[in-house]
Every structure is written in structure tokens, then in C-alpha cells.
Amino acid sequence: MKNEEYLESLKATARDAPRLPGVYLWKDAEGQIIYIGKAKSLKDRLVSYFSSVKDAKTATLVRRAKTIETIIVANEYEALLLENTLIKQHSPRYNIDLKDGKTYPVIRITHEDFPRVFRTRRIIDDKSLYYGPFTHLQNVDAMLEIIDKLFPLRKCRTIRKKQACMYYHIGRCKAPCCGKITREEYCRYVERVQQLLSGETDPLIIEFTEKMHEAARALQFEWAAQLRNAIRAIETLTGEDSAVVDMNPENRDYITWATEGVLATFTVFSMRDGKMTGRDLYRTRSAADEWESLELFITTYYDSTRPPPPKIYLQNGITQRHEGTEEEKKDNDCAPLCLRVKNFELVLNWFREQCGVEPELVVPTEKHHMAILAMAQQNAAEDLRKRLKERGIGPALDELARVLHLPGRPERIEGFDIAQLDGKHPVASLVSFKNGVPDKKHYRYFKLRSVIGKVDDFAAMREAVQRRYSRLIRENKDLPDLILIDGGIGQVNAAKEVLDELGIAECAVVGLAKRNEELWLPSTKAAFGSPDSKGNPEPLILSRRSEALKVLQFVRDETHRFATGLNQRLRSKDLFLPTLESVHGIGKQRAAAIIKAYENIENIAAADPAELTERCRISQAAAKAVRAAAQLALEDRNTRQQQLTGQRQLAGQRPSARQLTEALAMEAAEPSPEYNP
Predict the structure, then answer these.
(1) What is the pLDDT of residues 137-177, one digit of tens each?
(2) Please, which contacts does 591-595 make with residues 24 or more away whose CB atoms are closer than 8 Å?
(3) 141 vs 117, 131, 452, CA distance in Å?
């Protein structure tokens, strides 16, 4: 590739990077890392390298680099720690030289009969406990000051036996050197310090809060202020739980994956000596299930040149392979479904024969390990997203054409859905997709006329389809390649009957039913334009991993969102019209005009009376009365909703998935286009 082509490739990588915190690595033509940086938003930071006048160093970096790799982390703090670790590991030529080997401070609890607690930057393998690392030195010192005041632990390096030191006389030490406290009593203080540094702070915060109030009531304001500052420091420090640097010296790998159809991306995070030393991404194509793909990946990734660590953590996604017995579950403290030797025997045998070791394969339940796996899985999902974008929607549409026996790729798909409540405000939505992407300028609403006051989804579907395609025929516009109906065989046949009456044989029709996500084809002849086709009396069931099914689900969900949004708004207007009409001087037409201007009762309740007066041409007194009526109506509605929620909770009921979806769709619905007559 030429330099210009490399530059365009780098720019494309920057534009496609996620707006998430992470670390980015610039690599040269040999794949060597030449620069490592961190960012709160990877996309914004990388794009900035190409969007402004660059200094000499940056220009040289861009000229030498050939690829950019990104690693997503949980937050900016994780990015800072990972950047520090990777720079020291790889020593990139364009980073600041870190030969001094400085590290972030940690808190150490020594491995002694009477342990000490202090800050250090050195990690010694002597069974001491380490907590951190911490990026803010002042917070560490504040925490140590709190520990010093609240827990009277020894300060001296050697245990003196002659007499107690000054710290004992001022209440800062229990003088274990003179036998003033037993080891058991002393260790109880140490356990509370460990609890504090481990993040189990709720009991301590409750205790300190009670003591703070007691001190305030006793007019000991200085002590109360110290306790208040202690609570704040505890809350600040315990947030620094790192997934990329911890004090666990155990070497381990974390393996996660993301799949879509035949595409799979595996991610491996390696932790060595308590630090993340690398992240590997591997792209595969396989029609095998996740278990078989995982077996193949593990036996390919590890070999004699790259032996496995003592422990390998796996994401919880293959536990259906073997559910342990109740006794196994009780004995297994890491995996609820017993993912140990029995169900990995084949892989473990391979490890023993090929690598001479037998690592422990587990699915963790500990919060820290799950956080690392979640971060790794996010990296796998991001890489898979990029692969799907690079490949495009074409293969999914080709699969859809094969499944439905279409004559060609369905580039234009239109979807229908009906929304109503007991026959009131029946509406139909039409959404249009071009090459798998929503084409919103062709979205349409239909206020249905033939089914007002009655519930008849089949008649509603016939009216919507007839109005849509009779108009396209009159205007001589292109017809879609595929029509998706949100429903089962009844709705599909209703739509197909209308198309037959209009003489449209080239449009394929399929229904997607929510219960089992099954596909329904028309049961009439000439289903998809083939005179020999008799249709399928049974539904077509696709794999939940099918890309063709995901395309149809996307279209179906969009039609439902679009239809429900309008229906909810119409019902909202209908509900609050009497409220506005009850205001003196506001009639039916004026109330409708107010709702049209502000769209919903929430906006009216929040409106400024002066603005209401000007926009709706009503008096200022009427505007104030309208706003007050809207506010009262909202309060009444919220009260009713709370009462309903309480009744459901008492009855052990929960709203249905459709009810929840409708509620979300009402809020997410976009401004509607003009109604299509």
C-alpha cells in the first residue's frame, strides 16, 4: 500500500472507533508498537490526529504508523492504568521514557503477627496484602490518616518490648509490643481495615455516620468533622476498583467471544503479576455452535510456545453443555453450573498431552473477575461490529432470499403493524428499509377508517395495504421486494388477498409472529409470484442466530415502535381534551389547537403562561388556568399509576412485555410525518 492509502486507512479506523474510554496503540509496518495513548473517547481522540495542524512529533507518528489498535476499558481511570502498564511493557519509541519504573501507590498490610498498614510503590512477594493501585496520592494519604485515627495499629517497624511509645499514650496504638493487646484482638482491627480497603464499606459508613451524629449531639464538632471527612474519603477511594491492575499475583487469562451468524471474534485478556499485559483479538468464521468453536479456539490459541496460565476464566455462555449435580454445585464456589473438570475433560486431556499442564477452567461469579470478562466481551463485540460493517448487509439479505425462495435480494423491505386499544384510535404504521437500513423519509402513518369502534386486525391490515399500494400503482412508483407483516397467518393472508386484487404478484409477503419468532408464508397459491407455489401451512422456524431473522426482527420492531407511538399520542390527546375544555373560555376547537401546538399534556404543564398566550391566542388568565389544569391532570395520572403499580405488586403481577414495549415506544417515537390519506 502507498502512504496515501495507509493514511486513508488510519483515518477510517479513527472515524469508526467507539466513543468509549480506552487505550490506542499505533503500530508500524512490522507490527511494532510505536506509540501508546489513552482517551476518554477513543473516536474523538483519534480523529483529532487528522483534523488539525500537527506538530513535528505527531506528523512523524502519523507518517510512520500503518495501523491503529484500540482496547476498550471501563473508564478513564482504567485507561490511565493500562496505558502505564503497556508503556512500561513495550517501551514505544514515541512515548515518554519511563525508565525510572515508577508505579502508582498501593496500600500494604504486612504479613506479620501484628501487621502494619502503610503506603508503598514496591510489591514484595512475602504474603503481604496489597490494595490499589490508586491514581490520587492525596486520597491514599487521607485513607491512611483515617485508618490511623480509627484503628490503633502499630507504627514502628520492630516490636519493642520494654515500654510503650508515644502513639500508645495518645490513643493511636494498642502497644502490642508491650502485651497491651492480644493477637486475636489486634487482628480484629486488621480485619476491619481489610474490609474497608476491599470496598465492603457499607457497615463502616453506617457505623461512622452514627458516631458522627453522636459527636455532633455531644458538641464534639471537631471529631464529628473528622468522621464526616472519613466517610467522604471512604466513598471516594472505594470507587477505584481496577479491572486492568489488581494485586492478585495469580497468572490468568480471560476468554470471551461475540458471534453473529458465521462470524465470531474471540478476545483474550492476559493478567500477569496483577497487571493486564495484553489483549488478543482473533477473528474466525464457523458454522459450529459456540461450544465447538470455543474448543477449537482454545486448542489453537495455546501450544508449547504459549502455555496456558494456571487459571482460565470463560464468559457464561456455554453452561448449557453440562449442569452439575446438586452436590457438585455445593462444592463448586466459582461456577453455578459446575464448569470444571467433568464437562471440559476433552480439553483438559489435550492440555495435559500437548502442554504438560492442566489449567483450571471456570466461569466466575466474583464481581472483579466478571468485570474483567465484561470489558473483554465489549472489545469482542466492538470488533464484531466493525466486521459486520465491513461486510455490509448483503449476506443477510442473500440468506433471506434463499430462505424465502425470492427471485433476488430484497433490497427494499416494507413493514406493516396495527396499533389500537379496544377499537379506539386504530392506526397502521408503514416503515421502509433500503438495503437493511431504515429509510425514514418513506415512513407513513394511516389513520384507519374501516375499523373504528371494533377490533378487527385482518380488516385493518387489508385497509392499510390497499391504501398503500393502490396509491403506488396510481403514481407509478416502485414496489417493494418484500412486505413484512407483524403477525401470523391471518394477517399475512389478509395482506396477500389485497395484493392479488391489485394485481401485484411480484411482491413477496411474510409474517413474523412474536411468540416463537416464526415466519408465516401466505397459504394461497402463487405465494411469491410462482404459479406452482402452494404456500406453507406450517411456519418456518429459523435459528435465533440467523442474520436473515435479525433483519426481519429489526423491521418488525421498527414498525411496532412507529405504530404504537402515534396510537399513544392520539389516546393522550383524547384523554386530556375534556380537561382543557373544562377551563372557562376554552372550547373544543381551542383545546385541540393547544394540544396541537404543544403535542402533549406534559409540555402544556411546563409551558410559560406568556408563551401560551402568544402561541394559542388566549388571554393570560386563561393561559394560567390551562397550565394549572394540565398540572392537576398530570398529578391525578401519576397518582393513578402509583395506585395501579401498588395493586400489581400486591397481586404479584407485572406488566406484560408488550405493555412495556408500548410504554417505551411512546417515549421513543419520533415526530410523525404527515398522515398519508
Answers:
(1) 776 787 788 788 778 888 887 776 677 787 887 778 888 88
(2) 594/618, 594/626
(3) 12, 13, 72
